[in-house]
Amino acid sequence: GAGVSQSPSNKVTEKGKDVELRCDPISGHTALYWYRQSLGQGLEFLIYFQGNSAPDKSGLPSDRFSAERTGGSVSTLTIQRTQQEDSAVYLCASSLGQGATDTQYFGPGTRLTVL
Amino acid sequence: AQTVTQSQPEMSVQEAETVTLSCTYDTSENNYYLFWYKQPPSRQMILVIRQEAYKQQNATENRFSVNFQKAAKSFSLKISDSQLGDTAMYFCAFMSSAGGTSYGKLTFGQGTILTVHP
């Protein structure tokens, strides 16, 4: 079946603009995760959803970042008033459940460049 | 908080040879899971192997095996009979088995770029 998909694959924006990054998880997967991969910070956890709820938002870097998930499926990560330090690859993953034995399947990521 | 350290930024190996990637971690927990993920140039992370801390036996997946030393908090990945398709960045990762709001969260090391030469 289809894997995790993310769109757009690449996004170039100007500083101060808002961007929306989309993640389509594998059908039937209840858990969804967002990670950020940047040169300075490596791979860091941002937020996860179990169903439509996000119990832990502490990984979001600032209040300019928000995420939502609707219908237990598609998730959107929104960055408001983008800054150059937001430039990174944003990875989404989904898993059947939330346990460690539930493999997280990753999408190809969205490369965000803030000019 | 848990930390994961990969001290080898880059490694290279000849095709058909064996290579070992190092990983150490720090945690106060007794039960947890460790992973190795592979990220090829396509950017898509792929799970290579998983180890449960309470299992003493080292996990193996075909040409991939781990050397898990719980007391030393070490978790190295051995790739045997290296193939050109193994060229990728490899990440070591930790996941707590404790409940709570961060259940399921992966903490990654900095990554090791592995190049397999023909």
What do these coordinates show?
The complex is a heterodimer of chains A (about 120) and B (about 120). By secondary structure, chain A is mainly β. Chain A has strands at about 5, 10-15, 20-25, 30-40, 40-50, 65-70, 75-80, 90-95, 105, 110-115. In chain A, strands 2, 4, 5, 8, 9 and 10 form a six-stranded mixed sheet that branches. In chain A, strands 1-3-7-6 form a four-stranded antiparallel sheet, with no helix packed on it. In chain A, strand 6 (about 65-70) and strand 7 (about 75-80) form a beta hairpin. The mean pLDDT of chain A is about 90. Chain B is an all-beta fold. Chain B has one domain (about 5-100, about 105-115): Immunoglobulins (Immunoglobulin-like, Sandwich), CATH 2.60.40.10. In chain B, the strands form three sheets. In chain B, strands 2, 5, 6, 10, 11 and 12 form a six-stranded mixed sheet that branches. Chain B has a four-stranded antiparallel sheet with strand order 3-9-8-7, with no helix packed on it. In chain B, a hairpin with a 2-residue loop joins strand 7 and strand 8. Chain B is globular and about 45 Å long. Classes of the chains: A mainly beta (about 120), B mainly beta (about 120). The interface of A and B includes residues 3, 42, 59 and 109 of A.
